[in-house]
Design brief:
By secondary structure, this protein is mainly beta. The chain is built from 4 helices and 27 strands. Helix content is 7%, strand content 45%. The chain has a 27-stranded mixed beta sheet that branches. The structure holds 2-acetamido-2-deoxy-beta-D-glucopyranose (4 copies). One 2-acetamido-2-deoxy-beta-D-glucopyranose binds next to strand 22 and strand 24.
Length: 442
């Protein structure tokens, strides 16, 4: 089914959307936009010669199509030397069917879409690629280069069927936006911290069917956020997904993470802060599968990689962790459940049900809880004051922990010193689950 008709159909059966508060995605189809006007970058000075800077042609094509139309980057290999800010477009689309490779330095955002309304960034053939060539920076120790795509203060938009490779810094950021959808994406970066896959904050945003390979955030929600639905995520040797880092006046509510497959990552899900204030509430983490990860369920309100922020701690409440399966790297070192809540602001209504995981090395694993209240494992019931960490040890595998393995699981990381090959889109992003929308070009 075409995704717009799917959305219209789904609007009448809202529960499918869980946490979303309304319609997401562009208001008009890219076909309607293209019928109105098409601005092909080749007509604005672009050349598929791997050398000519596509930056100025993109900007000129945008100027001609920004009030209604589609900017087209056709199949072919293009170079980008100067970054582009697409400011205040309305009723427009950016169709990328070729490869755009970074061939110069500079920080900031390579493709920066700001104040857009009714916008769609997509590939019609599933072969649209942004190649960041981050290794050129990383091999010399440079760590502050460009982000590949940023969507900011935009509404009624989607980003889909695009492949992002080897960002100098983050791959994809959605900030201060609403009514957005991002799906059918493969993101593959270097094997090092600071190369986030997807960072999102805003209202009413659906992210689904995304694969991330890197060594930092997989799909991470930041503050402020409300009504965020994240589904069918394949963290293929990454940092893992997270909520955070959380600081002063955190405001996050109504978030669902569902069908999250994580392999060889730092964690399956982490909520991270150190001091700070505000809240994270009404969150569900369901259907998680892990293999070979360091941490699994990890709430850390003393996160040592973050400097201490003033405040008694971010209040975490009403969080449900349901149906977690699989293995973990070393259960004696880092057990499947680590809840370390703020002593001054204990967590409440943390509900861990149906979590069955077992260590892949050794024959024991630990569960650890500090200042956490709710249900499951070492959590204390009810409410009350902060308490010191309680640790319990399990010496026999729990029943029903085994979980399927995806055939695309990465066997070795891509490092940071050599060019990273363009991945192909996997057919599925979670075991036994087809993508919510058909993959482009298939
Ligand atoms: C975004 O779309 C919704 C309908 O889904 C509409 O109510 C809203 O006005 C749109 N936003 C803007 C800025 O036009
Ligand atoms: C807890 O969060 C869930 C999921 O967002 C929500 O459906 C439920 O109403 C919340 N419970 C309370 C008591 O707020
Ligand atoms: C925890 O979750 C289980 C299963 O979803 C539910 O039956 C139970 O009522 C929940 N408990 C609390 C305290 O929310
Ligand atoms: C995940 O790893 C597998 C195995 O190397 C690879 O085929 C697949 O393309 C990877 N996904 C990404 C997005 O890099």
């Amino acid at each position: 089914m075409h995704f717009t008709s799917f959305l219209v159909a789904a609007a009448s059966v809202l529960p499918v959307f869980g946490q979303l508060s309304g319609k997401v995605g562009p208001l008009t189809t890219h076909a309607a936009k293209s019928a109105k006007k098409t601005c092909n970058v080749l007509s604005y000075g672009a050349k598929a010669d791997k050398t000519t800077d596509i930056g100025p042609p993109l900007l000129a094509a945008f100027a001609a199509c920004k009030t209604g139309g589609t900017v087209v980057v056709p199949a072919g290999e293009f170079a980008i030397k100067t970054w582009v800010t697409f400011e205040s477009g309305k009723g427009w689309a950016l169709q990328i069917d070729g490869t755009i490779s970074r061939t110069s330095g500079g920080s900031g955002n390579m493709l920066f879409v700001r104040n857009a309304n009714d916008f769609e960034l997509f590939s019609s053939n599933g072969k649209g690629v942004i190649q960041g060539n981050g290794f050129e920076d990383h091999k010399t120790g440079k760590r502050d280069g460009a982000r590949l795509i940023r969507i900011e203060q935009s509404t009624n938009f989607s980003v889909h069927d695009i492949i992002l490779v080897d960002a100098p810094m983050f791959h994809f950021v959605i900030s201060k936006s609403s009514n957005g959808e991002a799906y059918n994406m493969a993101i593959r970066g270097g094997d090092m911290g600071g190369l986030d896959g997807v960072d999102v904050w805003g209202t009413n945003i659906w992210i689904h069917d995304v694969m991330v390979t890197n060594k930092d955030e997989c799909v991470t929600v930041k503050s402020p956020s409300k009504n965020i639905l994240i589904e069918n995520i394949y963290c293929n040797w990454s940092g893992g997904s997270a909520i955070g880092s959380l600081g002063t006046d955190t405001a996050i509510s109504s978030v669902i993470y569902r069908n999250i497959y994580t392999v060889h990552s730092n964690q399956m899900m982490m909520i991270k802060s150190n001091g700070g204030s505000g809240y994270v509430e009404d969150v569900v983490f369901e259907n998680f599968i892990g293999h070979g990860n360091a941490y699994s369920l990890d709430i850390d309100q003393y996160w040592s990689s973050m400097k201490l922020i003033a405040g008694d701690g971010v209040k975490l409440s009403n969080m449900t962790f349901k149906n977690w399966k699989g293995g973990l790297a070393n259960g004696a070192q880092r057990g499947p459940v680590k809840v370390a809540c703020s002593d001054k602001t204990p967590c409440t209504d943390i509900n861990i049900t149906d979590l069955s995981m077992w260590t892949e090395t050794g024959n024991k694993q630990t569960y650890s809880c500090r200042s956490g209240y709710g249900n499951g494992f070492c959590l204390k019931k009810g409410t009350g004051a902060g308490y010191a960490a309680i640790t319990s040890t399990q010496v026999a595998a729990p029943t029903g922990y085994s979980a399927p393995v995806m055939k695309e699981d990465l066997k070795t990381a891509f490092g940071t010193a050599a060019s990273i090959p363009i991945p192909t889109m996997p057919a599925s992003f979670y075991p036994g689950t087809p993508p919510r929308s058909r993959l482009a070009g298939q």
